[in-house]
Amino acid sequence: MERFSLEDEHEAMKRPPNDAVLQPALRAHSPSQEQNQREAELRQEMAELQEDLAELRRDVKMKEQRLSEIEKELGITPFSKLAAKVAAIRETPAYQKTQTVMHNFGEKTSEAFRSVGHKTTEAFKTLNKKEEKEAQQQQQQQ
Predict the structure, then answer these.
(1) What DSSP line would sit under the chain, residue for residue?
(2) How do residues 41-76 score in pLDDT, each as one tens digit?
(3) 96-140 pLDDT, tens digit each
């Protein structure tokens, strides 16, 4: 059994490390040529996509401007577009159903208020008659 002394360990630390031991560690910490190439390809593709998107935005903006010019020539205003959208909404089944429900609710509410109003009027008439009767009785007692 070989024994190593502190001197041997000290000498071992002074020697450069074995390349076979360092290679896996270096590979883990530094990107390989393949990784560098893949990253470069991705960056290139990203730049191309960004340029394509910028071009599409310019195209859309030009088409929107042209559409605005055509609408102006045809007399189509923002208000008329809004009116057309509102008319289209009014034709939907959901709007029709909502309108029917709200109409029925309005009728029932009006009827309830009329009923409350009628009952309140009748109560005031009864109270007024009662007060008149009491006033007449007081006058007769005097």
Answers:
(1) -----HHHHHHHHHSPPPHHHHHHHHHHHS--HHHHHHHHHHHHHHHHHHHHHHHHHHHHHHHHHHHHHHHHHHT--HHHHHHHHHHHHHTSHHHHHHHHHHHHHHHHHHHHHHHHHHHHHHHHHHHHHHHHHHHHHHHHH-
(2) 999 999 999 999 999 999 999 999 999 999 999 999
(3) 999 999 999 888 898 888 888 888 988 888 888 888 888 888 888
3, two tokens: 């024994």
The answer to whether 138 touches 130, Cβ cutoff 8 Å, is no
> How many CA atoms within 13 Å lie on the side-chain side of 86?
6
Residue 16 has pLDDT above 80, yes or no: no
**Single-letter code of the amino acid located at 39:** E
Q: Would you say 89 and 95 are in contact if contact means Cβ atoms under 8 Å apart?
A: yes
Tell if the pTM clears 0.85, that is, is over it. no
CA distance 40 to 21: 30
